[in-house]
Amino acid sequence: MNRAKPNHYEDLLRSSNDTTSPAVNVESPQPESPVVTELLAAFSNPDLDLDHIVELIACEPRLSTEILRRSNSVRFGGKAPATDIFAAISRIGISEAQNALVALRA
User: Fold this and answer.
1) Average pLDDT per consecutive 10 residues, the chain (106 residues; last block may be shorter)
2) Sign of the torsion angle spanned by Cα atoms 63, 69, 74, 80
3) Residue 68's CB: how many other CB atoms inside 10 A?
4) 39 dihedral zone (left: phi>0; alpha: psi -120 to 50; beta)
5) Which of 71, 73, 81, 95 could cross-link to 88 by cystine, CB 3.0-4.6 Å?
6) Within a domain: residue 93?
């Protein structure tokens, strides 16, 4: 009997029902993009260049979305929503933008 190899989704479902294996199928992490590496360096640079950070963040769609989401949240939201990365970072601050990057890397 030649059975087709199950796909990744089926493996996850099977492992969640198996009490002897971990709840999730952990794969090796994807390598970081050069943009993320450059962002980490830019955040730690004492001569922080906000325009450069905004350009880098704009190259990472998930991070851009997360920063805009945070800036328009109840915690940081202003009278009008932030519609661009510069306005969003101005509202939430560099530390919160860095926190968003770290959270997405986890």
Assistant:
1) 47 46 46 86 92 94 95 91 95 95 88
2) positive
3) 22
4) alpha
5) 71
6) yes
Q: Tokens 């492992």 sit at which residue?
A: 15
Rg of the Cα atoms in the chain: 19
Q: Can you give the residue range of the structural domain that contains 77? A: 30-105
Residue 6 lies in a domain: no
Does the global pTM surpass 0.90?
A: no
What's the chain's length in residues?
Answer: 106
The token pair at 36 is 């993320």
At residue 39, φ and ψ (nearest 5 deg) are: -65, -45
Q: Are 98 and 37 in contact (CB under 8 A)?
A: no
pLDDT tens-digit readout, 29-38: 456 788 999 9
**Domain presence at residue 17:** no
